Amino acid sequence: MTGLNSPLGVPVACRVCGDERTIRAHIVPAAFGRLASAGNGKPLKTIARDSRKVSNSGIWDATILCHACDRVLGGYDKYAIELWRSALTSPPDFKAEEFEIEADASRVVKFLMAILWRASVTTRPEFSTVRLGPYEPKFKRTIFGPDSAAPDAHPRVMISRYRSRHLPMHHMYSMPIYSTLGGANCYVFALGGCRIVVKVDKRPFPRFCERYIINGRDVIRGLMVDFEDTTEFAAMRDVIHERWRADAARRHTSLQ
Ligand SMILES: [Zn+2]
What is the pLDDT of residues 42-87, one digit of tens each? Predict the structure, then answer.
């Protein structure tokens, strides 16, 4: 796909190797969208305050990666989607406070870094709050290069699992948003029913988090989180209520 121009008029090239033959690269792997619709076959719509709808075919950018570089990320994506399908979409245990699954945590960390790197380099407005700044080239080296950085240099990651008695949680995914935890900068997003926190900051996570940091482990241990108790649920409920009110007001006006 040559001849494309970025929104700034600069000729498009792969952000890793410079090849001008860029392809449609998904920011969040499309398989997570399909996972989201698994079971009922209905397409998933995300709920956003500005009514923008995102279908489960996912959001892609045709200006950031060539086929070969996109395939590198495909390797991380494949491992992650298999892990989610086999271990993270089972019915949740309502008595447990934690979950623990065997996994190659460093591959999961790189998979999550690859999502955030794509979200940072894309100009798609859905990801406008993800800007890795000085971490962007570091993430790129770790994801695409021979990873010379000690695993210690990788961003710290925590994964919790949502559970709900009313909603099928593996349907849940959201765009990364910037947040802070204990004063440390991080990005938070939902993916396949899990709540992902990636710290992009030298400052440490609060002490109580240490037990749940997955880096350097061969298991992922995380908290079970009741979805209806989260701020994410409250935000979603507010958006839906706002929509209802707006729709009701429109119907009322059209009757007059
Ligand atoms: Zn490339």
Answer: 444 444 444 444 455 578 999 999 999 999 999 999 999 999 989 8
Q: Report CA-CA distances (Å) from 106 to 88, 111, 199, 224.
A: 17, 9, 15, 21
Residues sharing a CB contact under 8 Å with residue 106, sequence separation 6 or more, in sequence order = 151, 154, 215, 216
d(CA 73, ligand 1 centre) in Å: 11
pLDDT value of position 112: 97
Distance from Cα 65 to the centre of ligand 1, integer Å:
5
pLDDT surpassing 90 at residue 169: no
For residue 198, the CA-to-ligand 1 centroid distance in Å is 25
- Tell how far CA 236 is from the center of its chain: 17
Asked if residues 109 and 157 have their Cβ atoms less than 8 Å apart, the reply is yes
